[in-house]
Design brief:
Blueprint (H helix, E strand, L loop, with lengths): L3 H7 L11 H6 L5 E5 L2 E4 L4 E4 L2 H4 L8 H13 L12 H13 L5 E7 L2 H18 L7 E5 L8 H6 L16 E4 L14 H19 L4 E6 L15 H12 L2 E5 L23 E4 L11 E6 H8 L17 H17 L1 H22 L3 E5 L6 E8 L4 E2 L2 H13 L2 E2 L1 E3 L2 E4 L7 H16 L4
Helix pairs in contact: 4-11, 5-11, 8-9, 12-14, 13-14
């Protein structure tokens, strides 16, 4: 590895970073993270912090898990790669597909299609949804519905169903036939509704209205996150996803549950949909499937969808896939990661520590009146929304948020900023004492606001 001086001199000079302005990053180079162990990361200056971002909602098992590392290394020596195209497979991919299906059997999932990440998984679900209707003799079902504030990746399909214009406007025109309905966001919504159950009913009515306007026979699928993650940890009322499921069933629309963030224990259960008692038709997953040790995702379908594809004419195959679908090293990471996930029962710890983090955030809201809203309470997903005017709910300005972020980092915690939100999604292995440290660092950052 090059020495520290080389790394500092070349930081952001040749590498364009995702989700950032390349010129701004050259003027203010990003932090260089050099080591990670457990829930802690260390930068090039030797500063150690708790990673309360969990990489990017993904390092569920924490860093440097020896079981996962050994599985990846062993697979590299045995079979580093072979394609899943052309009538070939590999033993580890077969085992991994079985394990993933077992993980989500309670959700009704029956078949697995491996991808290279969450955006790939969403894209796969969208494409298969259209093909499903064509195979059934309804080729006019091509449109998609989704939620404003929802996040579904950055491919053209995923960006098109995304509900945040930051990921859309620079790349328009996007995929035609994508329409959005209001999010279950009690703090900000067009109905002025603060009651979660009443808001769920309002959105259900908006969904019905949009379906009738578009034409029920024109819609292929509705996609949603069970808990909206990047959009600000928006936790819907318990009635919301069942309402959406009922509407989809009544109109012959497939429901896609985007579990890229919510799956594999993040919400305190193995899937987000399970919290709401809903079995979707499809699921998109990634992140926790390998705890980010290898880029893998999976799209899954239930028996209803599988039967249509498997009973189709021989000429109607799935002409979609990725070079690295069912990659043997990635599959080895899946098997090891899911084995460790079950052994450690990370969903139980996520539920307990998530409740601790949420309660701690509520206490901070009692202390600082510029915290407009606190959201969470389902696993290790928490958001604090900051405002400069609580009555008008004016979002806190970016400069103040950036200064506070630095103070929190210096105090020993890495958090993620989503506009005027502090987003928390630490590894699912975090301890009670470490959650207290996270809350203390955030307290220090909040105390700096206005100073």
């Amino acid at each position: 590895m090059k020495d520290d001086n080389f790394l500092r001199e070349n930081n952001a000079r040749h590498l364009w970073h995702p989700m950032g302005h390349p010129g701004a990053l050259q003027d203010n180079p990003p932090r260089i993270i050099t080591r990670a162990e457990g829930v802690r990361i260390e930068d090039i200056d030797g500063h150690s912090t708790i990673d309360a971002v969990g990489g990017l909602w993904c390092v569920n098992l924490g860093y440097s898990n020896p079981v996962v590392k050994e599985a990846i290394a062993s697979q590299l020596y045995e079979l580093p790669y072979y394609s899943a195209f052309g009538g070939t497979s590999n033993p580890t991919a077969i085992e991994a597909s079985y394990m993933v299906r077992e993980f989500f059997a309670e959700d009704g999932m029956a078949r697995v299609f491996f991808t290279s990440g969450g955006s790939d998984s969403v894209e796969t679900c969208l494409r298969l949804a259209r093909q499903y209707h064509k195979l059934r003799g309804e080729p006019g079902r091509t449109k998609f519905l989704s939620l404003k504030k929802g996040y579904h990746g950055t491919h053209f399909g995923g960006a098109s169903v995304n509900g945040n214009n930051r990921f859309r406007v620079a790349y328009e025109p996007l995929l035609p036939g994508c329409f959005h309905i209001p999010a279950p966001y009690t703090y900000r919504n067009p109905f002025g509704e603060s009651d979660p159950a009443a808001l769920a009913q309002q959105i259900a009515a908006a969904m019905e209205d949009e379906i009738q306007f578009q034409g029920p026979g024109s819609i292929a699928a509705f996609i949603m996150e069970p808990i909206l993650g990047a959009g600000g940890v928006l936790v819907p009322d318990a009635s919301f996803m069942p309402l959406m499921r009922e509407i989809c069933d009544r109109h012959g629309i497939l429901m896609i549950s985007d579990e890229v963030i919510c799956g594999f224990g993040r919400t305190g259960d193995w899937s987000g949909a399970r919290h709401w008692g809903v079995q979707p038709d499809m699921m998109s997953t990634a992140k926790g499937i390998t705890s980010a040790y290898f880029p893998v995702g999976a799209a899954m379908v239930n028996e209803k969808v599988a039967e249509v594809f498997e009973g189709a004419d021989a000429s109607d195959g799935i002409f979609h896939g990725y070079t690295y679908s069912a990659h043997p090293v990635g599959a080895a990471a899946v098997v090891a990661c899911l084995t460790e996930t079950l052994r450690l029962d990370t969903r139980t710890n996520a539920a307990a520590r998530g409740e601790q983090m949420y309660r701690g955030a509520l206490k901070l809201a009692e202390k600082y009146d510029f915290i407009g809203d606190v959201r969470g309470g389902h696993g290790l997903m928490t958001a604090l929304e900051l405002v400069s005017d609580k009555t008008a709910r004016t979002p806190m300005d970016n400069a103040t948020m950036a200064r506070m972020h630095t103070v929190i980092y210096d105090a020993g915690c890495m958090v993620r900023l989503g506009m005027n939100n502090i987003l928390l999604s630490p590894p699912l292995t975090i301890t009670e004492a470490e959650v207290d440290q996270v809350l203390a660092a955030i307290d220090a950052g909040l105390a700096s606001v206005g100073s």
